Amino acid sequence: MRFDIVTLFPEMLRGPFAASIVSRAVDRGIAEIELHDLRQWGHGKHRKVDDAPFGGGAGMVMQPEPLFAAVESIPGQAEARTVLLTPQGRLLTQAVVDELAAVPHLLLLCGHYEGVDERVREHLADDEISIGDYVLSGGEPAAIVLVDAIVRRLPGALGSEASLDEESHTGGLLEYPQYTRPAEYRGWPIPDILLSGHHKDVQTWRRRQSLLRTARRRPDLLRAALASDGAVSDADRRWLEEELETKLEEL
Ligand SMILES: C[S@@+](CC[C@H](N)C(=O)[O-])C[C@H]1O[C@@H](n2cnc3c(N)ncnc32)[C@H](O)[C@@H]1O
């Protein structure tokens, strides 16, 4: 999968992409990431890319010409999906990550200052993504989040593909609690079931912990899982209602 990222601050992205899973995926040829410094397409001696907003107001707005020129210089851009990172975009969820992971070529536009000229949104971007309901100073941290979340979904990027299936959000629920050695730490033992060696019982315990955790921490996710076909079985539902001593409709 190829990512082209247009940014005023390529140095903000180099470090995060040079470590861990993303860097390994790049080394293995699973992902290709190209950074494009927007200043290259700026005007004049100072490579200006922004100007004051028409109509007045605080801050500067990124001009359309440098962004259009940068995108139009990228090989294969006509077939790529151009994504504007903006707090006004579709909220990034695991479902959106999975959708984007199926696109072979993403072109990410990072805004800065007061944001970008509206014509970029209207005529250059195919999609707009927000990583959360808060405002960042620039699109770069959002690009890091998006690339990381997508790359770990690409086949071969993680050591164990199985770990993807059980992760939080993948099946609509939060993951069960995880423990590792030592079996007792500062007097806090791990649940006995994990030492039992009974694979099936461990699976049941994990499933139930996952349901319970989601019900307590993210009832919104549990409601969505209940509404989606087959995500929560009748047996799961009965167990959970007994454990919580309440009807799930009342959560
Ligand atoms: C200070 S913000 C501009 C916010 C803009 N004035 C508004 O109110 O919508 C500067 C840039 O940061 C990026 N950004 C800020 N928050 C973001 C978020 N939650 N998700 C994705 N990108 C974000 C966008 O690229 C944006 O153009």
How would you characterize this protein structure?
This protein has 251 residues and is α/β, with parallel strands linked by helices. It has two domains: 2-151, 3-Layer(aba) Sandwich (Alpha/beta knot), CATH 3.40.1280.10; 166-250, tRNA(m1g37)methyltransferase, domain 2 (Trp Operon Repressor, Chain A). Helices cover 37% and strands 16% of the residues. The protein has helices at residues 11-17, 20-27, 64-72, 94-101, 118-123, 140-151, 162-165, 199-217, 219-227, 234-244, and strands at residues 2-7, 32-37, 50-51, 61-62, 81-91, 105-110, 127-130, 184-185, 188-189. Strands 2-1-6-5-7 form a five-stranded parallel β-sheet, with helices on both faces. Strands 3-4 form a two-stranded antiparallel sheet. The protein has a two-stranded antiparallel ribbon with strand order 8-9. Helix 1 (11-17) packs parallel to helix 6, helix 8 packs across helix 9 and helix 8 crosses helix 10. The longest helix is centred in the last third of the chain and has 19 residues, at 199-217. S-adenosylmethionine (SAM) binds next to strand 5.
The major pleated sheet works out as: 5 strands, parallel
Number of strands: 9
Any idea of the CATH topology of the largest domain? Alpha/beta knot
**Number of discrete domains:** 2
Proportion in helices: 25-40%
User: What is the H/E string?
Assistant: EHHEEEHEHEHEHHEEHHH
Question: First CA to last CA: what distance?
Answer: 41 Å
Give the class-level CATH name of the largest domain: Alpha Beta
Overall morphology: elongated
Low-confidence stretches: none
* Distinct small-molecule ligands in the complex: S-adenosylmethionine
Per CATH, the architecture of the largest domain is 3-Layer(aba) Sandwich
Radius of gyration: 23 Å
Q: How many DSSP helices?
A: 10
Relevant CATH superfamily of the largest domain: SPOUT methyltransferase, trefoil knot domain
- Which secondary-structure class do the elements indicate? alpha/beta
SS strand fraction: 15-25%
Q: Estimate the mean pLDDT confidence.
A: 96
* Order of strands in the sheet with most strands: 2-1-6-5-7
